[in-house]
Each structure stands twice: as structure tokens, then as C-alpha cells.
Records
---
Amino acid sequence: MCGIIGITSNKPVSSAIINSLKKLEYRGYDSAGIATLSNGFINEIKSEGRVDNLEKNLINKKIEGNIGIGHVRWATHGIPSTINAHPHSSETVSVVHNGIIENSTKLKEYLISRGHIFKSQTDTEVIVHLITEYLKENDLKKSILKMLGKLQGSFALGIIFKDQPDLIIGARRGSPLAVGYGPNENYLGSDSYALKSMTNKISYLNDGEFCIIKKNQVEFFDEKGKKINKKVLELSSDEKNYDKGDYKHFMAKEIEEQPLTIKNCVKEYIDNINNDINIYNFPWKKEEINSLTLIGCGTAYNSCLTAKYWFDEMTNLDVNVDVASEFRYRKNKFKKDNLYIFVSQSGETADTYAALDLCNKNKMKTASIVNVIESSIARDSNFVLPIHCGPEIGVASTKAFLGQMLVLYILVLKLSFLREELKKDNYIQKIKSLKQLPDLVEKTIMSQNKIQLVANTFAEAKGSMFLGRGLSYPIALEGALKLKELSYTHAEGYPAGEMKHGPLALIENGMPVVVLAPRDSYYSKITSNMQEVIARGAKVLLITNKNKDDVVSENIWETIEVEDTNVDLLPFLLTIPLQKLAYYSALKKGYDIDKPRNLAKSVTVE
Ligand code: F6R
């Protein structure tokens, strides 16, 4: 989704801005732009499409200046086009914006009545004109405060001024924003990834705050304009994770990294010698928690749904799972003995953050499971459980999904053991199996030769279905989500027992259907559901685990076997062929695998 970068320095900034915009490409966007100041003028260049296009444009029209802002835009108000790309500028100011200004129509009417002329269809342009208007009668700080007071909605802003050769304003409400510190230069960025190649010293703005960045000084203010102090954090350096290496796509790299990311995560939480789970500084006593609500979006939601099956199986806790965009507007019954757990790879998803914020405002117990530990969701939760995956760049989540499930599973085991619902022998046995998981994931990844051929059929089909029961049902949802987001074909995930209640009508001759049928307690049920779709002409791809009993393969189109392990852990292994199915379907169609159309890595608007 949209990304912001700002630099004020004692040397030219345009190429550093372009490099940082490239770091933000993983977020998904449709246009890009840059504005710098030189000789008292604002120079603005914008392009539709990739940052490469913008870079080519810059070769023709060199733009100079030691201060500038850049942006990648994911369209909300107004089509993706050069005119709607950011920055938006008047003669006086230039603005980049992430988020949505909800009252832009009203503000625009007012500004037009004051003689302002609008060039774009964006909501952002009202910010440009508001500042321009207020600067006529107020100093800079007052104008900014007045402008911020008028905006409704969510935003992160970067602003430069024609008459200020060393000053960038950053402001935040709802969308994340970071400040970076360098030698004789300072930076503004919508996340720390954008700044990491320039500095590892970062501060984050909280909601309502704004900052004034100069090359040798940064000042922070609260929403009333009162000066505040900020901590400077040091980030760890993991630059190598931003490189594809020998892989054609980040997604391929991230799928293959999974044995390692799981191993790292297991190492963080498992006490190898005592076969115990280490979760340090958990802030609540076991008696204080009687129920849980697991909240996320998309893939993160699917990981929550998987965890519900584990919680139900191994604990007496009442567990609800909710989509963040529903939870945040539902009339919730907040309960003191409920723990609200927010799952998010990026830790910046707007709906998930809003759901967390709502719980915090109601003084609930909040915990988060995130990949980016510096993120807003991590910072604002009472307790954080990181998934230790390293940066995930491919828009379609792969290693983070396994990481989210893994941390949720570890939490289930620990809580269940502490609550004396899981006996010690069983607990130790499950931990021992968990330690085998990285190897099993590796073997499963290596043995998926058939999948590329099978994927061609899915890529060409009009639509497909993914069926599962029990723990495999959320994995079916995840498989369908991955296929639709990457290959742009219709795919539906269903609990197999629901087929007769409607979806069976969709089955027609030759329709590819994935049936997830591991050898668990649902095996005989789901194989019956499978025969029902086969009888109606479906081409079934059966995915199961290796077992001493052969599969009765009557009329099954193709069978893929994953490694065998205890049934709790099968969701991890069943996911792998589905990730590859989606990857190869998109490859066959020649689509942009790491940046699927219309999607963004970090969904910072609701
Ligand atoms: C799908 C996918 C998305 C994200 C969702 C939540 O492959 O990646 O569905 O899972 O946008 O993102 P996070 O986990 O960053 O909150």
C-alpha cells in the first residue's frame, strides 16, 4: 500500500529517495512520484506504474535539491494515473499522504469557494490547499495544527515548503510513520524498511503527533503542538533478506526459507534440554484468562481459525475468532477475563490495529503475534509474541502464515499445560514432535515435483474449490485465497460437509477440486465428500499424508502426499503444496507473482 519517504540533507537527495521507494515496492502500488526543492522552487515528477518508470523519467528531467519527499501510491480516491500520483503540490507546499481523508468532499467545497483550483481526483489534494490557505495568515506551525484539526480519517503525511530549504513536516493519525537519524541528514519514512539502508536509528510517531525534521535536528509535538521527547531505537540489520538471491521471485525464496524460519522460531520458544516452552514475562496469571478472541485479516485470520481447532482440542478456554474489519464495528461484549490476540505479519494492518485500539480503549488484555516487532500493533499491545520469520517481501503471505500458526500452536501447548489440561507426558511428546517440524517441512518442500503440472490445470480452469474438514478446513481457505490472489481465477474454500448445502451445484465436468484429507479423525467423512464431487465430474487433487495404508485412489485425478507427523502439525505440511500450486499457476499465466494486481503487502487503509 502507499509508502512515504522524505530526506533533508547537505547533499542531493533524489537518487536516495528513489532507492528508498524501491524498498517500499513490496507494499504494492500503482504509481510513484518525487518532489524536491531547489533555488526556491518545488520540482515535481510523477509516473504511472513502477518506480523504474519514475527513475527513467528522472534521467530525462534531472531534479536537483538537498531536500525532498517521495511516494508510492495505491489508489483509493481517483484512478491510478500520473495526475493522481503523489506528491501533490501548490506553488507553496508539496504533500505526500498515506491513508484516507474521509471529509475531503466537504473540505474541497470550502476550498473551491475560497478560489482554490484542484488538479487531481484525490482526497490528498485538500491537504495541499488547506495549508496553502492557512499559511496566508498564520506561521508554519499554526498552519499545520489548523490543517490537522480539519482532517477526518487516517493519515501519515510528509510535507515540504517552498520557503523552507531544510524542513520536512511529518504527521500521523492512524497510518504508521517513522523518523530516521543520519549524519548531517534526517529522514521520514512510512516504515523502517524504507529507512534501513540509510540508518538503523529510528523513532516512531504515535497517533496525533507531528514532527519537524531538519538535517541536524528533529522536534516532536503532540496534537496540541506541545513539544515532546522521543526514544531513539536501534534496529537490527537484516539487509540480506531484501535480496532475492538466485530465486526468480521472493515468493519462491520465502516458500523455501520455511524450514529455516520454523527452526528459528522453535529455537526462540522451545527449551531444548527440558522440552519446555519459554514464554517470558507473560503478564497475566492463568486464573485471569477464561476466554480468548483471536483477530486478524486474510491469511492471518486463517491462522487464527486453525488455532481455534487446537485450542478447542487441548483447552477448556472459550475461543472466538473474528475478522478485524467486522470486530472493530461489532457491538462487542468486552470481558475482563478475555485475552484479545491480534495476529498480523506486518503489524500495520489498519483494521487489525483499529480492533486492537478499541480493546485498549476498553482496557482489555491485549497480545499480538507479529513478524515486524517495531510495528504499531506490536508497540501498542500489552504483550508481543514475535514469529521470527525475517522480512516477508512477496505480497502473498507464505512463511509468515506458517510462523503465525507455529506461535499460536506454541501458545496453545503452553496455556493448556499451565491450566493442567494437557498432561506432562503429552506436553513433552508434542514438543518433541514440534522439534521435528523443520525437517518435515523441508522434506515436503523437496518432494513436490508433481505440483507444477497439476498447477497448469488450475491456472486454466474457470474456477476451483478447496475442501477440508477440521484442522484442514482453514488450510483449504488459505489454499483458495492464495490461488485467487496470485492467478486471478475464482477459487473457493469450503468445509467439505457444507457442499450439499449449496456449493455442490457449482461442480461440473472437469472442475479441479483440492481435497485435503489427512489421516485424522475426519478421514472417512471427507473421503465420502470427495466421492460425491467425483461423481459429479470433479477432477480431484487429493492431498494427504504418507501412511502405511494406501489411499483408495478410485477415480482420483492426482494424489500428493506430504510427510507424516502427529495430526496437530499436519496443517503446516498441507499448506506447502497449496503455496506451490498458487505459485506455479501464476507462473504459468505470466503474472506478477510478488506483486499481484490490486493488492498490497501492508494494508494501511481500512
Ligand atoms: C494473503 C495476505 C493477506 C494478509 C492480510 C493481513 O496472502 O497476505 O491476506 O494476510 O492482508 O496482513 P497482516 O498479516 O500484515 O496483518
Note: The chain has 18 helices and 27 strands.
---
Amino acid sequence: MTIQRTFSILKPDATRRNLTGTINAKIESANLRIIAQKRLKLSLAQAQAFYTVHAERAFFGELCQFMTSGPVVAQVLEGENAVANYRDIMGATNPANAAEGTIRREFAESIEANSVHGSDSPENAAKEISFFFSDLEIVG
Ligand code: ATP
Ligand code: MG
């Protein structure tokens, strides 16, 4: 059994449609515990820093605009194989390719406005968690 932590963001398209609780229920149903959570509005500089791995991609500018277009909810999730488990319940980046029952299939508006972010590796999870949360704010 590997208890792991991952980092999640409920994106502006989700908060705009008042889906925080609905998505959190899906997260908790998948045996992931929300051990830290805060709602915030990203600055452009924060969005650019968070998505720096995508800086060379054609969609980078638009993505950063989108991520600063409204409130987001940043979260730390904990559970067995949390990184892969959360990626599974999120579904594919493009909702058109996302499996039935996944968060993106049910809620995403587009490949960009796709409702949730989840870390893609334990190493990136650790980096992303410390970007947004201090140890004091994480209560496992
Ligand atoms: P995330 O990192 O948000 O969990 P992901 O790992 O499924 O998503 P990435 O390839 O890391 O996908 O892309 C990061 C984000 O950039 C996507 O979630 C989406 O919001 C946006 N994005 C990805 N590809 C495109 C695209 N072709 N056009 C517009 N936006 C895109
Ligand atoms: Mg990614």
C-alpha cells in the first residue's frame, strides 16, 4: 500500500459554474482525502510560473489567461496511489477523449477549460504542493 499525496486545482470554469462541491464529492468517492484546500485568484505571474513547463507551447498565453480568469481551488489530496488514482478519475486532457464517468467527461467545457488539474508524477506533486501550501496548512 502506497499512501501518496497529489496536487489538484479546480479550474476557473469549475468555480464559475459552482461545481466545487460536486467535484469534491467525486474526489472523496474515489477514496482521496482533501487534506488541504484554499480558494484563490492566481496572478498572471503565478500562472506563468505554475505552467512554466508549457512555456514554449502555442497555447501557453491563452492557458495563463484562462487560469487567471476567475477563482481556482487549490488542494492537496491524499490516498493510495493518489497521483495515478486522481489522473484516472480526471480523465483525458481533451474531454472528447475522456472516459465515461470521469470529471473531465462530465464537466469539462473544452481541452483548455477542462475543470481540473492533477500532478503527473509524485516528484511534480511535491513541487506543486510546496508552490501553493506551507506544511502548516496541510492536515493529513
Ligand atoms: P493538467 O496539467 O492541467 O492536469 P494535463 O496534464 O491533462 O492537464 P497538459 O498537457 O499538462 O495536460 O496541459 C496542461 C493544460 O493546458 C491542460 O489541462 C489544458 O488546460 C491546457 N491545454 C493542453 N493542451 C491544450 C491545447 N491543445 N489547447 C489549449 N489548451 C491546452
Ligand atoms: Mg499536466
Note: Residues 54, 59, 63, 93, 111-112, 114, 117-118, 120 surround adenosine-5'-triphosphate (ligand 1) (CB under 6 Å).
